[in-house]
Amino acid sequence: ATGLDTNAVNTNGIFVPIVPLLESPKNEDDDNESTVLSFADVNAFLQEEERSLQEKIDSLQKIFPAEGFLTYHQAIFPTILLHSKETCEQHGNAIDYIEKMLHDQLVSAIGREIGPTDFAEYMVYHNRKLFQPNYQPKQFCNAVRRPEHDPEGVVTIESNGEPIYTNVNLIGKNQMSFAIDAATTVSFNGNQFVHAWVDHCFSSSSQSSLKLKARARQFSSFILMIGNITSATSFNPKHAIIVQNKDEIIIPILFETIPTPKAFKDAIESLSPEQQAFAKAFRNMQLESTLFGICIIQIKPQLEKLLSLPPDSLTKEIQLTQDLMDLFMTYQVPSDIISYQGDSPNQTDRINQVKEHVSAMKQSIEVAKQKEVENAEQIHRFENPGAEISRTERFSSFSSRGGRGGRGGSGMKRKRAVHSGFGGHGYTFQDNSFDESFVQESKSDSVQQTSPTVLVEDKQLKKNDCNNMDDSLPLNFTKLPTRLDSNFEKLDLSNSLHSVIVSAGDKWQKTFKKGLLGIFETETLSDTQLSSEKNRAFDLLDALSRSGVLDIDDAEFHVILAANHSFDKTLMDTLIQDNINPIEQLERSMIIIGSTIQEIEPQQLIQEEYIEKVQKSSPHLLTNQ
Fold first, then answer.
1. pLDDT at 25 over 70
2. Would you give the end-to-end CA distance of the chain in angstroms?
3. CA distance 462 to 122
4. Helix/strand/coil (H, E, C) string of 569-600?
5. How far, in Å, CA of 553 to CA of 289, rounded?
6. Nearest one of 185, 197, 153, 172 to 296, comparing CA atoms
């Protein structure tokens, strides 16, 4: 290789036929020639590349010998490789140049560079234009109220401080049930809603972060339960809490995205039949887990029903309502011994009798507490002769022997309040031992109620009949995930729409006031506190329903279904690199889910002036129905 000019191995003089040009669509009415190069010009470019490359090869053959350590064959090969590299680099630079130009034009046209947040705001605006008024997505912000009454509070699902928009289907009033323990099942009636929420994310952004918020007004209260749905008539509450007196509960909502139906089928295609059967069974469980239930129960109307009081009689009885809740939750007092007994049509008479029962019950409780304190003092004096006992020691001694009992809790033996006589208002406390007279008196009191007597056997029969009504309901919740999955596979051509498993997180935050003059305090509830809150709520539900005998009438049930439309690239790259309009993509997803939830044809969702536009962008939506 001595004396050979190795610097001649280069691409100098070789023509690179790459030029960044944009094609302008031809207008049939325009006679002007297109500015894009013709086929003849393209061929001329390629011919020039071939000519210059051949010229370079000829020059290398003159410099390098045909035989020896470094021949012209060995010089031509790296030269061609270098030219190929330059051609690829030039192609990439041309694409970058075009994309940068398009990006700048978009930013100039809009006025600024837009991101995922801007796109989400636009979709809210777009959905108002696209959908019929009755089917437009609405904010999930539910006022807890009776008709023609002020709200007790509000329940919302928020993202970035604003309620999310969901497609809502009001199913109507149907009966469902849930178990508060192995022996007690409570039925509730009220409006049922199905909410479908479509989230979207680009490669540069993550899924939205949602929070369920429940707030109560002063002197107001309601019960909030969240969980999953096990059948068309059964609800399985995972958590429950009483929200009252300006409490605010913030619950994080967690998401788990499952593969699209097409991706799932592709993944199991090469598996054995046994493996496929296992994967399909597990996916069915995942789809059922996408149903997230929220149950809201109003307390005052049920208290009125429980105590045989006229509707609205507790609306202005604030202290009485608080006393009743305390008796039911803290002391588990049977409702029979404080409910109204008689047939007076006068509302005031009924209220006054209940007040007298509650007052006597509270006095009996105070007497029982005083006796326990005196017993604790006596024990302390016996164990510590001549020593004085302070208030702190009194309380400590009392607490060490047991505090207030409750569902699943430990502490003081649970006392039973017993009526001292028909028509009287004295009560005594008995120990946990069985008392036959108490059972007989409670039954006697129940028969005296002015409201119709409901037998446990009839109630159980009613529940069994209800459980056999799945197919007669207007919309079976448990079938929705499978219907959505089927429609995703058939109508989502981009394979971007995922079902999402929704669940409640464990980092609950509670803001509360200990009194009217107190300041707001905020705490994060531990697992133990969450369990305690659930037990308190279930204790109250047990009392309000007479252990499942009474139906709960003033309730609302919300079913949440979520889906995620996932884009592989950023918003701007989706527009420029893939030349895909994300508005049309998300519009299609909204129509697929909306028509499934509402059980109507897609064209019935859409405003008449937008049907032609949707027909052009997604013709299969309207033709495959």
1. no
2. 75
3. 49
4. CCHHHHHHCCCCCHHHHHHHHHHHHHHHHHCC
5. 27
6. 153
